Amino acid sequence: MRSRSALDVGSRFFYERFVGDQMYVYSKGDMMVALTNQLTGTVTQKVKRVGFQEGDIVCNIFVRDDCIAVENGSLEITLTDGDVKIYVPITFLPAPQK
Questions:
Q1: Reduced to 3 states, what is the DSSP secondary structure of residue 91?
Q2: CA distances (Å), 94 to each of 49, 84, 91, in order?
Q3: Of 32, 47, 57, 88, whose CB neighbour count within 10 A is largest?
Q4: What is the value of pTM for the model shown?
């Protein structure tokens, strides 16, 4: 994965994208972080005004094939069993190894 400077994290502002009882989502630069306080079960939330463009595909840096597309300016994020996900544009991830 590219460095923190390539993601433009250091010089960009922190934005809260969603604050709820079971999920918290923020972004900084080209990175979006989703956290939950639910250690068991599944939490799903549609997050609006995500800071990415319509049709952009973002992927979880921990699981390469966990990708979602921006639709109607929103992302539907699902966290299971205390997951933490860090989404970046798919173009920031290395190509899959063969």
A1: helix
A2: 26, 20, 8
A3: 32
A4: 0.83
Helices (H) and strands (E) in the chain, counts: 0, 8
Backbone angles phi, psi at 42, to 5 degrees: -120, 135
Phi, psi of 65 (to 5 degrees): -95, 10
- Coil/strand/helix, residue 2: coil
Tokens for 41? 């079960």
- Amino acid, single-letter form, for residue 47: V
Pair 31, 88: CB distance under 8 Å: yes
More confident residue, 88 or 4: 88
- Going by pLDDT thresholds of 50, 70 and 90, the confidence category of residue 7 is low
| pLDDT score for 95 | 73
> By C-alpha distance, which of 95, 78, 3, 75 is closest to 36?
78
